[in-house]
Specification:
Distance between the termini: 47 Å
Radius of gyration: 32 Å
Largest sheet: 5 strands, antiparallel
Oligomer: single chain
Strand content: 15-25%
Strand order of the largest sheet: 3-2-1-4-5
Helix content: 40-55%
Number of strands: 5
Length: about 190
């Protein structure tokens, strides 16, 4: 950092304006990446809180099958069966359970008690995500945002570097056009 600060503010006569511009772009890229990391942390936290809020209203309940469940050998397909369950308020509801929301219905007989998860409105839903899975998803989401920002900033820096290198080469060509004839005998 000391060298970078000296590059931007130093009085060295050999440092060209193009070098100072490149140093400023580098400092801006570091600052932008720092902001991107903070945004990635906020995004990861928000992802976790949204997942946790989605699972907060999910409650376990028991359902009784009103018909035989789908055969257990139909693993690739989604099966369904009519069932009756009690919502937390005490009222009874009936409807269709699928193997996506209640995997235990596969191979179950009429009258079997199946554990299900109900949302706030009393409708069957998939089981809630595990706490560890939610943390991993939020960490991966934050890391992906930070990585994407890093790649974009590296791309921007590379494009700036190409433009600045072209300027440097043009300045060298111009300087050689002025100095070259006095160094060589060919004209």
């Amino acid at each position: 950092m000391f060298r970078l600060a000296r590059l931007l503010t130093g009085r060295n006569a050999l440092i060209r304006p193009v070098d100072r511009i490149e140093g400023a772009v580098l400092v801006a890229s570091y600052a932008a990446f720092g902001v991107a990391v903070v945004i990635a942390c906020i995004f990861g936290t928000h992802t976790y809180l949204v997942q946790r809020a989605a699972t907060a209203g999910v409650r376990p309940a028991a359902a009784v099958l009103l018909q035989d469940g789908p055969s257990a050998d139909s693993l690739g397909r989604v099966g369904q069966a009519e069932a009756r369950w009690f919502v937390p308020g005490g009222s009874e509801q009936s409807g269709v359970l699928t193997t996506a929301t209640a995997p235990d219905i596969a191979g179950a007989a009429v009258g079997a008690r199946i554990s299900v998860w109900l949302n706030r409105s009393g409708q069957p839903t998939g089981p809630p995500a595990d706490q560890t899975v939610m943390i991993i998803y939020s960490l991966v989401a934050g890391a992906m945002v930070a990585a994407l920002a890093g790649m974009v900033l590296l791309g921007v820096y590379a494009l700036c570097r190409v433009a600045l290198d072209r300027r440097r080469l043009a300045a060298w060509d111009s300087a050689w056009d002025r100095t070259g004839p006095s160094w060589t005998t060919r004209r």
